[in-house]
């Protein structure tokens, strides 16, 4: 979990830790710190939940670096922003999903599960943007 808002990040990590199906490997307040922590890990996380707007290293830069160094790690963008440009930019950066911070907490668990199973997940507010994106770049 990478998010610069301590209360939000810690709250989400606690919420996820309460579910036996998930394990939080680490948390970080920006992409630079997350990449440094990843270098020290013996086990690479399957999924990284990445905020977009962070100081030091934003979510776009973080996603690109994660994709380059750890292509097996799936990226779930996590943002309050449903702006088309940001959604597309995050998809171009390697995100396999995008969930809005206003979503129901259980939706976050669902998104993580879907990505872990090899799928893609998008909150209702960004799903149409993602659908149009994948029409242009089918995979």
Automatic annotation (TrEMBL):
| Biological process terms in GO annotation | phosphorelay signal transduction system
Q: Which residues form the Response regulatory domain?
A: 1-116
Q: Known Pfam families for this protein? A: Response_reg
**Modified-residue entries (4-aspartylphosphate), positions:** 51
User: What keywords sit in the KW lines?
Assistant: DNA-binding, Phosphoprotein, Transcription, Transcription regulation
Q: Which superkingdom?
A: Bacteria
What's an example of a GO molecular-function annotation for this chain? DNA binding
Q: Sorted alphabetically, which PANTHER family does this protein's record hold?
A: NITRATE_NITRITE RESPONSE REGULATOR PROTEIN NARP (PTHR43214:SF41), TWO-COMPONENT RESPONSE REGULATOR (PTHR43214)
UniProt-recorded name of the protein? Response regulator receiver domain-containing protein
């Amino acid at each position: 979990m990478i998010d610069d808002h301590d209360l939000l990040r810690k709250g989400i990590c606690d919420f996820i830790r309460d579910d036996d199906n998930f394990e939080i490997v680490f948390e970080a307040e920006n992409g630079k710190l997350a990449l440094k922590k990843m270098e020290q890990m013996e086990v690479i996380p399957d999924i990284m939940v990445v905020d977009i707007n962070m100081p030091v290293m934003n979510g776009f830069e973080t996603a690109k670096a994660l994709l380059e160094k750890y292509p097996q790690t799936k990226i779930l963008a996590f943002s309050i922003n449903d702006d088309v440009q940001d959604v597309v930019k995050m998809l171009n950066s390697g995100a396999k999903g995008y969930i809005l911070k206003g979503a129901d907490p259980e939706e976050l668990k669902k998104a993580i599960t879907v990505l872990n199973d090899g799928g893609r997940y998008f909150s209702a507010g960004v799903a149409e943007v993602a659908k149009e994106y994948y029409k242009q770049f089918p995979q």
